Structures are given as structure tokens and as C-alpha cells.
Amino acid sequence: MGFGDLKSAAGLRVLNDFLADKSYIEGYVPSQADIAVFEAIAAPPPADLYHALRWYNHIKSYEKQKASLPGVKKALAKYGPADVEDTTGAATDSKNDDDIDLFGSDDEEESEEAKKLREERLAQYESKKSKKPAVVAKSSILLDVKPWDDETDMAKLEECVRSIQADGLVWGSSKLVPVGYGIKKLQIQCVVEDDKVGTDMLEERITAFEDYVQSMDVAAFNKI
Questions:
Q1: 139 to each of 44, 94, 117, 178, 190, how far by Cα in Å?
Q2: Which terminal Cβ of the chain has fewer Cβ within 10 Å, N or C?
Q3: How many domains does the structure of the chain reveal?
Q4: What are the residue boundaries of the Translation elongation factor EF1B beta/delta subunit guanine nucleotide exchange domain, all occurrences included (predicted)?
Q5: By percentage, how much of the chain surpasses pLDDT 90?
Q6: In what order do the strands lie in the sheet with 213-223?
Q7: Predicted confidence (pLDDT) at residue 93 exceeds the cutoff of 80
Q8: Closest by alpha carbon to 105, among 9, 40, 6, 15?
């Protein structure tokens, strides 16, 4: 399991393929898994690796909040596709049939047996990629939900918002943000499937809790 060396072009290609149908390394919201992989990359992926570049720029936007993201950071080798061996830190002078680089340089000499094994593994990897389901368009949305006054029960307000369930909607992290005069607004993140959930639907459902909610605004909207 792993991406290989994420400072190499080969490792970045594996990461790009891994993210072709995923928004994050694990789950549906940014987590310590994304930070662990992000910190292993030396520079932004090239433009042709657009899945990896899209993910890199998105995680970079969480730089100031990375310590507060959910999850526990694990070793880099714990993340990535199960059929790609982690080669980070492997000795460059060690070569055997059990440690063949799937994306090895054409300039390296290799035995016929090793070459055959590498081609078989590449064929298996390509076959698995082709069987992946179609990519579902998703968006990460940050919502500002404002109460009526400073006496509004914000815990109950958040409970009401999170009670909204829909196919293609996943609620994420939240926090209370002061807006003045002792009033705090609820700032909450969600990930939606674009063809199933829209901001109009969210606003209609959230503002229906009129005993607690004065208004709802979209603070940030990012395609993922």
C-alpha cells in the first residue's frame, strides 16, 4: 500500500490516478490523511496531473487550519492504492524481483523476467483503473447560518441543520464565529453531489427552522 516516492514523477502519477474518483485521501472531508500526503510532496503537481493538482490546491487552502482537521496522521505508507508498493526511502542499490518499480526508467537495465513481471503489473493496474466508476461531480460548500439574536440556542440550531439528510449530502466540521453584540453565527462545511443537492435546496431546508435561523449565506463554494 502506498503512493511510492511522492517527490518523483512516478509517485505523483499514482496519486493523480488515485484521486481520479476521490475528493480526499480518506473520507469526504479534509483530514490528517490529506495533510500527511500533502507534506510529502515537494512542489505542486504539473498541470497535466489535474486531479492531483486540484487536490493539492484545495488542501493548501487549509494550511492555517491543518492542525484542527479531523483524524490522526499516520505513516505515509498507510495511504494510497493497495496494489502499489511504497518505495519511499528504499535503497537505490537494492534490486530484486520483489521490489520492481512499476514506473521504472527505460534507461535501467532489467532482466527479461523482471520486464515481464513489470508489464504484467502495469496491465493489472490499468485494468483496475478502467473498472473504476464514473467520476461524480462534487462541491465543498461553507455555509454561514445566522441566528436571530444572542439568546438563540446555537447548539440546538446546529442540531437542526445537521438533521437535514439527503442523498449526496455529507456534513463536515463546524464552528461558531462572533459577528458582534454577543451574537455568533454557525459556520458549517458540507460536501454535496452537484446533480443531487444545490444551495437553493440547502437554504430552503435550513431557513425552515425559523425559530432559530434568521438567514443562511454561502461563504465559500469549491468544485472538487
A1: 21, 44, 40, 26, 8
A2: N
A3: 2
A4: 138-224
A5: 50
A6: 169-180, 183-193, 138-147, 213-223
A7: no
A8: 9
Q: Is residue 33 part of a domain?
A: yes
Q: Which of 189, 194, 201 is nearest to 145 (CA)?
A: 189
Please report whether residue 123 resides in a domain: no
Residue 122 within any structural domain of the chain: no
- Which one of 78, 99, 123 terminates a domain? 78
Predicted local distance difference test score (pLDDT) of residue 11: 87
CA dist 156 and 62 (Å) reads 28
pLDDT in tens, 5-52: 888 888 899 989 989 888 999 888 889 999 999 999 989 999 899 899
- Cβ–Cβ under 8 Å, residues 216 and 207: yes
In a domain, 164, yes or no: yes
pLDDT at 134: 64
Residues contacting 155, CB < 8 A, separation 6+: none
Which domain, by its residues, includes 44? 9-78
Q: CA 28 to CA 23: how far, in whole Å?
A: 7
- Give the pairing of strands 138-147 and 213-223: antiparallel
pLDDT of 46 reads 92
